[in-house]
Specification:
By secondary structure, the chain is of the alpha/beta class. It has 13 helices and 21 strands. Bound molecules: 5'-deoxyadenosine (5AD) and iron/sulfur cluster. 5'-deoxyadenosine (5AD) is lined by residues 55-56, 166-167, 268, 270, 308, 310, 339, 341-342, 344.
């Protein structure tokens, strides 16, 4: 590649999970430190970062078609500089470099702190790949948090040692690591100084976080949450995503004791059949999952529950799928995510016998989603008439309208004289399937 001008504008496109959103924000911050500014809406950027997700179907194909779209009909000096980041970069970096000459940087999720150096090389016309996994070093090398949204993310843990047989994460994000306690308390304070009112602690297996507090004592996620709740100006704490195997008594108790910990739990179950769960290597049964939820609900009766589901795991029979529907009925989720099984290269399930036909998966997904939508709407209706605190996150579609989140992570919209980042009391007037219409009651101290 020829040397080229330093990019002046950038665009980061993040796909997939919230951790990618966090990583995307951090990459944007680094580019900002370099004096590169976000490309104005609707205009081409000089540098495009495709921050990819590999968890399901056709991830790599999507990357190639995005690259095609960005470079179509453009000579090299007119086309943007392209960096591919995220889990597809980690899993398929070399192929991307070989197949897509327009890409000048490939950077894995544990190495993106080196993006600025790679950029220097790219400007000199060198193509660079970095898919090392130094993990903690990345966070130390990132710039300080200076700007954020009222509801912001903080990655506390990365990687996964669970090896569910369908999942690519242990290969793309690597082994479980916990960021040190002190770094997290510092970053949380910086986020609050920058305007955050709510922080969601992120990790592929966030409930496996462990560390040592400032007194040298070993603490788990609940200990971290207890201490973060003491940060002045921080009003709300959430965490995601958890695994049933790591949920301990302390975390359950924390839900009953810490007001700032929002009444919401995202706890994926994946399936309702014990045989399927075993084949998935999930280490819990449907029954043990339900018992665990009972304990959470005893600690916090108004807890809203969320989950993840996969339909059509290899060998799943109709009767086994019915067990998933039965579990959904038993739980009554406030919201949930559901997916068709997608064979991921290199995972054990991809070579299992009994791959389920697409039409069967389509049908199961439709039935499952109908049940989940029914329950979500029912949950929303059950909160009608309540007045609750809403964190204002953005303007709504119509002038004077605002959108925010209730403690149960429902979207609520209302009109009134408020601003982004305000915590306000809103009466939930009318429930829809995906959001609630509210009426502003009063502002509460921010
Ligand atoms: N196919 C379909 N869904 C998957 N997930 C993870 N791997 C796969 C796969 N191979 C889903 C799981 C997980 C969520 C983040 O994505 O439900 O909890
Ligand atoms: Fe993937 Fe299972 Fe780890 Fe979640 S717990 S990231 S589904 S391997």
């Amino acid at each position: 590649m020829k040397p080229t001008n330093s990019p002046k504008t950038y665009r980061v496109k993040s796909f997939g999970c919230q951790m990618n959103v966090y990583d995307g924000e951090r990459m944007a911050e680094m580019l900002g430190e370099r004096g590169i500014v976000p490309a104005p809406e609707g205009e081409d950027a000089d540098l495009v970062v495709l921050n990819t997700c590999h968890i399901r179907e056709k991830a790599a194909e999507k990357v190639y078609s995005d690259i095609g779209r960005l470079t179509k009909g453009k000579t090299q000096d007119k086309a943007p500089m392209i960096a591919v980041a995220g889990c597809v970069a980690q899993a398929e970096g070399e192929e991307i470099m070989a197949r897509a000459p327009a890409v000048s940087m490939v950077v894995g999720p544990q190495a993106y702190h080196r993006l600025p150096e790679m950029l220097d090389r790219a400007v000199q016309g060198e193509r660079a790949t970095d898919t090392d996994m130094p993990a903690i070093a990345k966070f130390a090398a990132l710039p300080e948090r200076k700007r954020t949204n009222p509801a912001s993310f903080l990655t506390v843990q990365e990687g996964c040692d669970k090896f569910c047989t369908y999942c690519v994460v242990p290969y793309t994000r690597g082994a479980e690591i916990s960021r040190p306690y002190g770094d997290l308390v510092t970053e949380a304070r910086k986020l609050v100084d920058a305007g955050a009112k709510e922080i969601t602690l992120l990790g592929q297996n966030v409930s496996a976080w462990s560390g040592e507090n400032d007194k040298g004592q070993a603490v788990g996620l609940a200990g971290l949450i207890r201490d973060l709740a003491k940060v002045d100006g921080l009003a709300r704490i959430r965490y995601t995503t958890s695994h049933p195997a790591d949920m301990d008594d302390d975390l359950i108790a924390a839900h009953g004791e810490i007001d700032k910990l929002m009444p919401f739990l995202h706890l994926p179950v994946q399936a309702g059949s014990d045989r399927v769960l075993k084949a998935m290597n999930r280490s819990h049964t449907a029954e043990s999952y339900l018992r665990l939820l009972e304990r959470f609900r005893a600690a916090r009766p108004d807890l809203a529950l969320s989950g993840d589901f996969i339909v059509g795991f290899p060998g799943e029979t109709d009767a086994e799928f019915e067990e998933t529907l039965a579990l959904v009925d038993a739980v009554g989720y406030a919201q949930a995510f559901s997916f068709k099984y997608s064979p991921r290269p290199g995972t054990p399930a991809a070579s299992m016998e009994g791959q389920v036909a697409k039409e069967v998966m389509d049908d199961r997904l439709q039935r499952l989603q109908a049940a989940l939508n029914r329950d979500q709407w029912a949950f929303n209706r059950a909160t009608e008439g309540r007045t609750c605190e809403v964190l204002v996150e953005r303007k709504g579609k119509h002038p004077g309208q605002w959108l925010g989140k209730t403690p149960w992570l429902q979207s609520a919209w209302f009109e009134g004289d408020v601003g982004i980042g305000d915590l306000v009391q809103v009466e939930l007037v009318e429930a829809g399937p995906n959001s609630l219409a509210g009426r502003l009651r009063e502002r509460v101290a921010a």
